[in-house]
Amino acid sequence: MNILLIGGSGSFINNLIIKLNKEGHRIYLLTGSRYKQAPYQKVFERYDFTYDCTCLDEIFKSIDPDLTLFMGAHDTNFRWNEEKDAVRFSASLMNILMAYSMNNVGRFIYLSSDEVYGFDYDRFITEESPTAPSTMRGMVIAQGEELCRSFRVNRGLDILTLRIDNIYSIPQERKDVNNICARMCLEALEKGTISITYDHFMSFMYETDAVEFIYRFIQADSQKYSIYNLSVSEAISEQELAHMVKDAMGEEIAIVHNEKLGQRRVLANNRMYEEFKIPLSCDLETIIQRMADHMKNHRNLFLTGEQDNLPWWKRLLNKAGWFIHALIPFLENLICFIPFFMINNRTADSTYFANLDLYLLYVLLFAIVYGQQQATFSAVLATAGYCFRQMYDRSGFELMLDSNTYIWIAQLFILGLTIGYMKDKLNVLKRESEEEQQFLSVQLSDIQDINNSNVRVKDALETQIVNQNDSIGKIYSITSTLDQYSAEEVLFYATEMLVQLFGTRDVAIYTISNSEYARLFAATSQKARSMGNSVKYAEMGEFYEVLMSRKVYINKTLDDKYPLMATAIFENDKIQTILCIWGIPWERMTLGQANQLTVVSALIQNAVLRANRYLKVLENERYKAGTRIMETEAFSALSHAFMTAEAKGLTDSTLLRVVNKTGNSIQAGQFLDAQLRESDYIGTLEDGELYILLSNTSKEHSLNVINRMAQLGINIEVVEEME
Description:
Elements: E1 2-6, H1 11-22, E2 26-30, E3 45-47, H2 56-63, E4 67-70, H3 84-103, E5 107-113, H4 136-155, E6 159-164, E7 167-168, H5 180-191, E8 193-197, E9 201-202, E10 205-206, H6 207-219, E11 227-230, E12 236-237, H7 238-249, E13 254-258, E14 264-265, H8 270-275, H9 284-297, H10 299-304, H11 312-347, H12 358-370, H13 372-390, H14 396-401, H15 403-467, H16 472-479, H17 490-502, E15 507-512, E16 518-523, E17 534-535, H18 542-548, E18 553-554, E19 565-571, E20 574-581, H19 591-617, H20 619-622, E21 629-630, H21 632-647, E22 653-658, H22 665-675, E23 681-684, E24 690-695, H23 702-711, E25 716-718
Parallel strand pairs: 1-2, 1-4, 2-3, 4-5, 5-6, 6-11, 7-10, 8-13, 9-14, 21-23
Antiparallel strand pairs: 9-12, 15-16, 15-20, 16-17, 18-19, 19-20, 22-24, 22-25, 23-24
C-alpha cells in the first residue's frame, strides 16, 4: 500500500513510520518544512515542502497514495505559542484537503485530540457528543474536524477522523515536554513540587498504543463510522498521577493542590473496541517510571536545555548569539574610527592634506557599506572626533559659536544620510529581486525535486512492474512465445500459458464447431473438463450474453456448472474460441484479473489469427485438391502436435489407420469425411495409408467410431504409437 504521511518530525510520526515499514508498506513523507535537517525514520520518498506550496497537487499526483494520514493536532510543525499558528493550521489543512480532493485517491485520516472538548463532563464522552473546546488550540482542531466532515459530506470523499485521548511519550529533551505526565516530572525536577487540580480526571494513551490503534484503521478496508475516539477509557485523577510521579522520582516531592474545582474529560472507546478489540500493551505506571529515570539521568538537558558536555563559550553563544551578531557592525565602526581619528589629527596642520576631510570619507564609507543606521553612528563619532580636535586650539564655547562647525556637521549628516538612504533603497530593491528570484528558483527546484522523485520512484518500480506476474511486460514475454510454435500447437501452448499467468491448474479452451456448439479442444484437469466435451453454448444464458458482448464473464454466484472466469476470441464478429478458467481464489476475482484476461486473450487472438492466415495461404499445399484430406507433411505435423499435447495431459486424441478402403484414397477419404465430426482430421502418412485423427476422443470412445465404420464395410484399427 502506498501511504503518504504528512507531519513534522517527532517520536509519534517516527513510530508510525517504523510500524508501517515493518508491515511492508511503501511510505512517502511530506515534512511541511523546507529544512532537511529534521530527523525522520527511513521512508521510500521524502518531500521537504511546506503545506502552502503550489506544487502540493503535483505531489499527490506523483504518489497516487492509497491512504493519506495528516498528523493534525500532533503535527510538530505547529508549536501553538503564537496566534498565527491557528491561522496557519487551518490554511494548511484546507490546502492539503483541496489537493487530496482534486486527485480523489484513497482514504484520508485526520488525527484530532481530546482538546476539542472542555472539562465539564461527568461521564465518558462519546463521538456523538458536541465539541466544546475551551482553548484556542482546541477550537482550531475542532474546526479541522468540521472541515474534514464538510469535504466528506459535500464531495463524497473517504475521510476518517481519529480523536486521540491525552497521548503521552517519554521526552528526549526539554522541547519535547508536551504532555501532563512529562510536565509533572519536569516540575518535580525544577521546583521539587507538583501542582495539581484536585479531582481532575482524565485518561492517558501511550504513543505506541496509539500507533497500533491507528494501524488497525489503516489496515481495515472500511469502517462503520467516520469518526472514532482512540482512548483506554480508564479515568485517573491528577492526584493519582502525581503520586505515581513522586514515587518514580524517588525524591522529596511536595504535591500542591490548586483551589480550582475538580473536572473530568475522558473519551469513550466503545465504538472502537466494538470493531477492532485491540488489547493495550503499555502500563501507565511503568512508563512513568521510565520517564522519570530518563529525565533524572539527563537532568541538565531538561533544566537548562543544554547538553552537560557543552563548553561555557558554546552555551554563552547559544544564549547571546543574536546580540553578538547585531553588535558586530557597531564594533567594526568603532574600530575603523580609531585610525581615521589618528590620521586626521596628524594631517590637520599639514599644508598638503589640510583640505582633505577624512571624517567625511569615513562616514561615506560606512554609509556605502551598511546604510543609514551605520552612517548615522559614524557621523556621530566623526562629530565627536572633530569637536575633540578643535578644542585643542580653542574653547568649547568658541566652537559652539562658530557657524562653520554647524555647516560641517550638517554637511556630514546630509551626505551620510543621503548615501545611506540610497544604499538602503538599493538593498530593498536587491532583496525584492532576490526574493522574486528565490521564489522562481523554489518553484523550479520544486519541479525538479518532484521530477527527480518521480524518476527515482519509476526506476525503483520499473523492475517490479516488469517482472511481476500480472504485469504487461510479463504477460507479453509469455504470450510472445506463441509465435515460436507451429499453427497446430498455438492453442495447446496457450492453455499452458494461461495456467502460468493465472496460477491455476484448471484451464480449458473450447473451439466453435458451428453456430451453436463449442467442442473442447484442450483442458489441463478433470475440473476443467466438467462442462463436457461438447457444449451448446448458445443456450447458456448469462454466460453466452456476456461473451457475445465481448466482456469477461465472472461467475459471481460460484455456480459449479460454469467456469469462474471466461472470455471469447472473435474473428469477423463471430466467436471462434472460448477460454475458461477455474480454480481462482475468490479474492482474486477482481476487475484487475478480468482486465488481465482481456489482454491475454487479445494476444492469443493475434497468434491464432496469424496461424489461421498462415494455414489459409498454404491451404493448397496442406490439402489434396478439392478435399479435406491433408497431405502427408501437414497431417504428420498435426498428429505430432496432438500426441505431444496428450502426453502433457492437455487433450485426448486417437489415431486410426484405415485397413481396407473402397476406391482410391481420395474417394475413401471423402466418404469417411462425411461420417466424421468437423473437429476430426483425415490425411495420409509416409506409408501412403489413410489415417483418421479423432480429436478430444480417448481410445475407449474411439470404439464407437470403429464399430460404426465397420457397419459401413470399412475396417479401422487404432495406432498405438506413432513413429
